[in-house]
Fold this protein.
Amino acid sequence: MKINDLRPADGAVKSTKRLGRGTGSGTGKTSGKGHKGQWARSGGGVRPGFEGGQMPLIRRIPKRGFKNYFRKEFTTVNVSAFEVFENGTVITAELLRDKGIIGKVEAYGLKVLGNGELTKNVTVQANKFTQSAVEKIEKAGGKVEVL
């Protein structure tokens, strides 16, 4: 193989459309732009969402809701998820993440909810607990540690 034999693969290079080169080319005269008007001009056209001066749809529809910037985001987990652990295990957010029970740990940490049943006596370390979660963990013989 020589350097003068090198060429791109078939179909890899597409020739550019030559505009305004006679009627026989199919893109002569108006060059595929139609007849006059805003869209035929260089740099012409309107911004996305512009409806010709009519009140745009985005402004006709009422605004809904708001974003509470003071909300505290917790990663939540139910006590029923602790059944997979052995008796006496110290359960932390990192352990739950490593086991694949939770995804990422949110900014305010882990919150334990009281849904489901728990029979293992485990020690749970979390940032927040619901009252029912504390009752179920302590009823099973476990301990609750608030971080």
